[in-house]
Sequence to fold (274 residues):
Amino acid sequence: MRIRNHSTFGFVTAALLGLGTLGFLGCDDDDGSTDKLDAGAGGASAGRDGGSAGAGGAGGAAGGADGGSAGAGGGSAGRDGGSAGAGGGSAGSDGGSAGRDGGSAGAGGGAAGAGGRDGGAAATRAEAVLAATTMTGTAKGSARFDRAGAEVTLTVSIEGAMPGMRGIHIHQNGSCAMDEMGVAAGAAGGHWNPSSAMHGTSTAGHLGDLGNIVIGMDGKGTLTLKNAGWALGTGSMTDVVGKAVVLHAGTDDLASQPNGMSGDRIACGIIRAQ
Fold:
């Protein structure tokens, strides 16, 4: 009986141990299943999160689509900007045309200027500022030409000259320099005589004949002449601009050829349009 009891007890014990083992194994499995379920749940959560991320990605894609749309809009804006640029280019072209037209107008203005020279109406005033031709000279002054209609009036003012009658003329070259012979203001050349007339008075000689200016005891003198044969700034043969006005030390006898025996050149100035 004791053996049987022991056997029974052993069997029961074994059975219990087996069940315990099975229970233990079952618990492990249950824990593992739980872990797996938890992992599954985590995976599901991750899946959901991944889904959310996917949704976020979809949102990003949508954002990308929006960005694409924005890009497309930017592209459109770019195209519009390009059109504006093209328009600006057209405007530039028009501006260029305007510039060309302005240039043409300028050319026309130049032509008009040329016409003015040919027409004899390019200037209304010209002046020569006379200075002494030597280091020791003191004579100086001015010769002003004013045009009114077809007539030009010359007004000469001199100071610092010796008293008496002093010859004065318009000379052919616009220079008051000494010439190669050492003559003061010799570079001014001879009297201006475009018509090759004989030397004489201011009314019966060549265009450069101005006669004499009377210098007072104070060294000053004035002279006024009118001549319809002079032109100002026209570039014609009768244009006084670019010539020189020369005051002489002696008196012009108004008869001797070719210069009236007026003596040295003591003051000189180049005529310039004003």
